[in-house]
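Q: what sequence does this backbone want?
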C-alpha cells in the first residue's frame, strides 16, 4: 500500500502524528517502510512522493505489514 493511500484513510490525523507513529512502528519492526523502486512517473506520482516518510537518507513511499 502506498503511504498516499494510507494517508487518504487518515485524513483527520495530522501528518506529524502519522509520521511519528509510522516511524515508531518501523523502528520497532512492526511494519516495513520501503522506497518505491519504480521511478516511472505514472507510478511514482507527485502525490505518492508528497506522502513519503523520510527515514534515514531516503524517502519511503510504501508500507508493508508482516504476515501473521
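A:
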Amino acid at each position: 500500500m502506498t503511504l498516499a493511500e494510507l494517508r487518504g484513510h487518515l485524513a483527520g490525523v495530522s501528518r506529524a502524528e502519522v509520521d511519528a507513529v509510522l516511524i515508531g512502528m518501523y523502528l520497532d519492526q512492526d511494519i516495513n517502510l520501503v522506497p518505491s523502486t519504480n521511478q516511472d512517473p505514472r507510478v511514482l506520482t507527485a502525490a505518492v512522493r508528497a506522502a513519503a516518510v523520510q527515514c534515514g537518507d531516503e524517502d519511503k513511499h510504501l508500507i508493508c505489514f508482516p504476515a501473521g
